[in-house]
Design a protein that fits this description.
The radius of gyration is 30 Å and the shape is elongated. The two termini are 34 Å apart. The chain folds into three domains: 2-159 and 311-327, Glutamyl-tRNA reductase, N-terminal domain (Beta Polymerase, domain 2), CATH 3.30.460.30; 162-299, NAD(P)-binding Rossmann-like Domain (Rossmann fold, 3-Layer(aba) Sandwich); 337-421, no CATH class. The longest helix has 53 residues, at 312-364. It has 17 helices and ten strands. Helix 6 (113-127) packs antiparallel against helix 7 and helix 8 crosses helix 9. Strand 2 and strand 3 (52-59) form a beta hairpin. The relative contact order is 0.09. It is of the alpha/beta class.
Length: 435
Amino acid sequence: MTFQLIGVNHRSAPLEVRERLAISEATLPEAVQRLAQHPGIDEAMIVSTCNRVELLARSQNGSADLRGFLRDYFHIQQADFDKHLYEFKDKDAVCHVFRVASSLDSMVVGEPQILGQVKEAYAVARAVGAVSSELDALVTRAFAVAKKVRNETEVGTSAVSVASVAVDLAKKIFGTLAGKTVYLVGAGKMSELAARHLLAHGAASILVANRTYERAEQLAHKFAGQPIRFEQLYETADRADIVVTSTGAPHAIFRREHGERFMARRRNRPMFFIDIAVPRDVDPEVNKVDGIFVYDIDDLQQVVASHVSDRHREAQRAEQIVALEADRFLAQLRTADVVPTIVSLQEHLETIRQAEVDRVRGRLGALTPEQELAVETMTRGIINKIMHTPITTLKTAAREQQATTVIDLVRRIFNLQQKDEKAKAEKAGGSGADE
């Protein structure tokens, strides 16, 4: 069992780097399949959000080249992103996954969206057959740890979401949201969350544009808003005071010339773009147009900083829970690895005992029941004494980091690997004959 994780997030890489490594919802299944087929990988999963892109894998020997996968998949030079990557293995990888699911590694500590995003990534990986055994156990345990953190600490109390931070920024620019028109470009969950916050703080009306018009209609209906066909985006955007954009477009959909056109129509009334998409929907040049204010996902960190100190103590308690749960999870996995070896060893030595008793029985002649019992008791006692030390060692190792090394050593000493492979081959042959 070897877990490997590699990735970038809002702390390790600027937005322009995260943009280049972002994987859209539409291409995620194919990307996960390719990762699972990468040399040395048995199971795989990818989490791609506005703040992070992470590859999680269970590899055969802990040396799967995840950096090489990134290089080949995105067709980029390794030197361009190498310094921004973080990489974890085994316990460190487990702790990181638990921290991410528990929102301890988020830009806004305690925000609830990341758990849903991890669950969606897990669902995609399962759907394409990339997650099965140990990785499945790891991710499902991460969900349980996240629930425990939320139930046993106050880390999520008054948690600030990206959407609520965006509302704070809008208030700073306009003073009040009363009577303001909001334009949602992209009808995903982040847009819906932003709409709820903006309306709750006084926004008067909502416009919604989405490439799939039916989705725009559905979201607009929820808030008594107006759906707009995406091809009418540029001729209607100037009606908005606040534009919240979160599409999956691979390039900017708002450029400087669009901003200049909007301001001319608005007669220089301020316009605020909240760009929570990765890659960005709004070209940074738009921010240079007088009267237009553009904030991207990294800009939101400035507002987040003011909320962090309030949850610092609770976050420390949550970190202790994560560390304890990581140790428990790894101990359970190591125990699960040890049990099959103990069973194989017992079966192997019992087979030898039976064979030897049968071999000498003919030379001993007829035995009385008492003699049969004595032979059985003596041979079983010898086997139990032989098994005592390796089994005790295996059980002790199950609680330590070197469990895999001890398991491999015992299997080699008693030739259990070859025995198991022979048994599998015989079983496969028998199944074929039945068919």
